[in-house]
């Protein structure tokens, strides 16, 4: 019985930890936002389309990003409905529920999408 109680306690602790992540940490797994599609638009803009996970207590306001030379690093923001989160690139309005789209100024070729469970390297302009 003690093993069961320990397992339940660890599960509860891991769920609380996931909800209190620091602001700079990625919050979604690869599977929860894939497929991710990049489109190179005119004027040095990369459009990123992705799946928005259905959640009751969290929402996606957009993405934060950083450009380092020819590489764009992107993190999809996961925000509590009780908080107001600012995104560097806001989710574009008018899309069906479950669809996300952002536009980011970037003229390089490599995009690294940071996830909870690793990084996904994508090529812009394909």
UniProtKB/TrEMBL annotation:
Keyword Signal: yes
Signal peptide segment: 1-20
Keywords (A to Z) from UniProt: Signal
Superkingdom in the source lineage: Bacteria
Name the record gives this protein: Lipoprotein
Source organism phylogeny: Bacteria, Pseudomonadati, Pseudomonadota, Gammaproteobacteria, Lysobacterales
């Amino acid at each position: 019985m003690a093993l069961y109680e320990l397992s339940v306690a660890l599960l509860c602790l891991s769920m609380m930890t996931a909800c209190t992540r620091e602001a700079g940490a990625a919050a979604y797994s690869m599977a929860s936002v894939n497929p991710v599609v990049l489109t190179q638009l005119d004027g040095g803009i990369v459009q990123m389309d992705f799946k928005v996970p259905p959640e009751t207590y969290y929402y996606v306001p957009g993405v934060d990003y950083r450009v380092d030379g020819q590489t764009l690093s992107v993190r999809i923001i996961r925000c509590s409905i009780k908080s107001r989160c600012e995104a560097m690139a806001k989710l574009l309005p008018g899309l069906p529920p479950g669809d996300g789209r952002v536009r980011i100024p970037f003229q390089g070729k490599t995009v690294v999408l940071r996830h909870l469970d690793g990084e996904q390297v994508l090529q812009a302009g394909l």
